[in-house]
């Protein structure tokens, strides 16, 4: 049987939430479970600024997806794409989300495997 384990790592407000990501990542690794950790680019930058190398190392053992560059900080995805067609929308998404993908790659040592948008983007 295959089980897909996925966590959104998105709380930009409470520094204590860093420990939640750490605990989940470590517990799963101890049981040889690899999860999809969907990390907001800004959250990874906050870990870096806070010197949370422990969180970065633990999360970096899992599959990491980009859960947007800035999540619900305006302009949100729905806002910046509202007046765009396909081609200019793709270009704008790459422009807005590219920094998050680049920072996840730099901070966690691997490129994100996916781009997962927040619920407000549907």
Structure keywords:
122 residues; mainly alpha; globular; TIM Barrel; 3-stranded parallel beta sheet; 48% helix; 3 strands
What does the model show?
The protein is mainly α. It has a single domain, classed as TIM Barrel, CATH 3.20.20.370. The protein has helices at residues 17-30, 41-50, 53-59, 77-81, 86-108; strands at 6-9, 36-39, 63-66. A three-stranded parallel β-sheet has the order 1-2-3. α1 (17-30) crosses α3 (53-59) and α2 packs parallel to α5. The longest helix has 23 residues, at 86-108. The protein is globular and about 45 Å long. The mean pLDDT is 94.
Summed up:
With 122 residues, the chain is mainly alpha-helical. The chain is 48% helix and 10% strand.
């Amino acid at each position: 049987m295959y089980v897909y384990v996925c966590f959104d790592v998105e709380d930009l407000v409470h520094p204590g939430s860093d420990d939640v990501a750490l605990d989940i990542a470590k517990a799963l690794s101890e049981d040889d479970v690899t999860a999809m950790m969907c990390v907001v680019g800004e959250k990874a930058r906050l870990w870096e600024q806070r010197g949370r190398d422990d969180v970065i190392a633990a999360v970096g053992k899992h599959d990491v997806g980009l859960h947007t560059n800035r999540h619900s900080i305006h302009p949100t995805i729905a806002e910046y794409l509202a007046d765009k067609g396909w081609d200019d929308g793709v270009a704008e998404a790459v422009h807005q989300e590219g920094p998050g993908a680049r920072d996840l790659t730099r901070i966690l040592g691997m490129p994100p495997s996916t781009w997962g948008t927040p619920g407000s983007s549907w």
